[in-house]
Amino acid sequence: MLELKKSPAKAATISGVESEYFRDGDNIFSADLTVITSENPACLTKHYRLSENDELEKYSGGQMEQGNASVYKLHSLGSLACLLKSLKTNQALVYGRPERKATGLVSKRRWLEAGCPDD
């Protein structure tokens, strides 16, 4: 079973916090997460509010048309917590990573209109 153990191995993580690597015996593990940042629309997250009748109303987040993706390597649950706390309403997490560490993102329609660019 994978557990976090005391170790002299340290990793710089999100927000400059140092945390220990995931260790299982002599094996060191890390996880890649991709942060998607939307430029259009400005908000991806769902939000809630009370109506004038005190009923809970849910509004879905927007569907991203343009933005970018950045990969983060996490070495502990503490670094995941720091990353989650730092996310803004125009950001979302994807587990795993694209082929490139950082890349632009657009909708398929915009990508086709732009002539299918490689980036």
Description:
With 119 residues, the protein is mainly beta. The chain is 13% helix and 41% strand. It has helices at 77-86, 108-113; strands at 10-12, 18-20, 22-24, 27-29, 31-40, 47-50, 56-59, 66-74, 91-95, 102-106. Strand 3 and strand 4 (27-29) form a beta hairpin. The termini are far apart.
Radius of gyration: 19 Å
The helix/strand class is mainly beta
> Which percent band covers the strand fraction?
35-45%
Distance between the first and last residues' Cα: 39 Å
Shape: flat
Average pLDDT reading: 76
Number of helices: 2
Q: Could you spell the SSE succession in H and E letters?
A: EEEEEEEEHEEH
Largest sheet: 4 strands, antiparallel
Structural features:
mainly beta; 10 strands; disordered N terminus
